[in-house]
Amino acid sequence: MSRDLHIMPPEAPLAMPAQNFAQGFRDAQAPTGGRRPSAGFWRALAFSPAMAATLGLLWVMSDWFSAEGINLVEGILLTLISFNFFWISFTVCTVLLGMVSLSRQEQPKREGRPQPLRVALLTPVYNEVPWNVLGNARTMLEDLQQRGGQHHYAMFILSDTRDPEIAAQEQASVEALRTTLAPGLELYYRRRPANTDRKVGNIADWVSRWGADWDAMLVLDADSLMTGRAISRLTDALARDPGAGLIQSYPQLIGAQSVFARMQQFANGVYGIAFAEGLARWCGQEGNYWGHNAIIRTSAFASSAGLPKLKSLNGQDKLIMSHDFVEAGLLRRAGWAVRFLPRIRGSYEETPPTLIDHAMRDRRWCQGNLQHLKLLGSTGFRAVSRFHMFHGAVGYLMSPLWFALLVMWALIGQGKDASVLHYFSPDNPLFPQWPEMSETRHVLIILVMYAMLLAPKVLGVAALPLSGVRYSDFGGTRKFFTSFLSEVVLSVLYAPILMVQQMIAVFRTTLGIQKGWSPQARDGGSYGLRTLILCHALETVSGVALSVGILAGLVSVWLAPIAISLALAIPLSALSGVSAGAARRMVGMREDVSEPAITRSARLYRDELKRLIEGKGIVTPAE
């Protein structure tokens, strides 16, 4: 077997020029006629209540502090609370919007037969376990063939793998799979000699060399899995909407075995449905892109979404890391609609198995999302596209803000005569006057924050029947609510730890300590005590300090849940990777009762291909 396996169709070049962020751009291909539905009403329903609630809280708190005027410290406290409260309120409003949308009995439109499209299924890979990727690829191709239809599909494995051993297994797996595929199924493979510009360059290379032959490309991740029905529905949606440049599905999590992964999968499958529905409503034609499980009009992407390099402070060219948000903004800038269709089910991805693996992935995403702040002033972006990019960055900036708010609440303590500041500096005239916060007011604010954080979960549970999912699907109503309570307790325990980890990621990115863009550890691992201590030292010290303050009467007892979580960060992180029977009993999922047929087929094909490759004596990569 050649070490440089290359199985591709004849090249069909398609120009993909880099866009200029300093100049506006309108794609001449984008349709200009026809009236598209407006999302203005839904946006008003999402944003207005959140703004009103935040202003109301700000007015009440300002009245508390205004007896002697609001000083600088009080102003900072009010700003932190208001900023955090708006984003919490906005999430609640989005979920409520989703509930309203799900409850509407809309009659499906009668639509004609869509125009046939040639669709390339693109799977970029970088040092992945090859039989997992190719087992999924075979499953999707066969499911599409069984479903039939007028569209034409082909799978492209676009490799950027650098490890020679994994590359050898990858190529052996491709050759083995091609010999077993049913007639008519197309599987192509190419490995780039250098992974120039990482995933962005990988996709751009395919578009510029083969894109002209394909009407659309469905971009997958290495762990993506989609049913033939989901792929066909996305393709039909794109074919019926000539003004759509990109249509994003709602990827649901699968394959979770560990405590942390099962918690994430339960939350995604229960709370995420109403949130996704609400998001789709207020986004309208100006949705976002999450980098995979979305179908894209190839010609629109090539002409409108080529990414330039960004200039760093030292004048060097830097790659745009979180490319997906920017590509969605560029498509919309050029006149193409970017839609989100959460009701297309059967779109799946996997999730990191442990808290540390999740934090490692978050550091990569943080690096890319904070980069978006530099693009907010770019010419031509729509307001909603700018909001998507800002919101992605705020998701990480919220963590240091929450930590700062936590520190300030802890320092305020339980009153003038029982606060950390008064204890350490009782007669210091130079220290600014601290806000007067009685225990009642203190508790009220914390209770409101806790209630708002819990509200999306409770609303998501209430909305679940509206989506067609029954509580009994989880093994019975009692089992469902037991899992719900377990997920709530676990999320309360893990949230403060994730807050600190995201804060660390923000500071690492800001200080330039976070370098590169390493591939995601999909299988994770069990981490030793030394790694756990090094990773969670800051949480542990913070938690112990808070706990001591609470026991000494200097810190409000209402911060005890946060203090306990941070103090126990090391054992909680170790628990996150447990995947024995305890994890299954702790958080049950619908997939435990009725596993989707597509995941069963994928697991079968993965195992079959693994045995075949290992039987040839090819070295197995560390999983």
What do these coordinates show?
This protein is an alpha/beta fold. It has a domain at about 115-355: Spore Coat Polysaccharide Biosynthesis Protein SpsA, Chain A (Alpha-Beta Complex). The protein has 22 helices and 12 strands. It has a 7-stranded mixed sheet, sandwiched between helices. A 3-stranded mixed sheet has the order 5-12-7. Helix 4 (about 165-180) links the parallel strand 2 (about 150-160) and strand 3. Helix 2 (about 70-105) crosses helix 8 (about 270-285). The radius of gyration is 26 Å and the shape is globular. It starts with about 40 loop residues before the first helix and ends in an 8-residue tail after the last helix. The relative contact order is 0.14.
- Strand order, biggest sheet? 3-2-1-4-8-6-11
Proportion in helices = 40-55%
Mean pLDDT: 88
Number of helices: 22
Low-confidence stretches: 420-426, 428-434, 619-623
What structural class do helix, strand and pairing data support? alpha/beta
How would you name the oligomeric state of the polypeptide chains in this document?
single chain
The profile of the biggest β sheet is: 7 strands, mixed
CATH superfamily of one domain: Spore Coat Polysaccharide Biosynthesis Protein SpsA, Chain A
Question: Judging by the overall fold, what is the CATH architecture of one domain?
Answer: Alpha-Beta Complex
Which CATH top level class of one domain fits? Alpha Beta
Give the termini separation.
24 Å
Please report the total strand number as a whole number.
Answer: 12
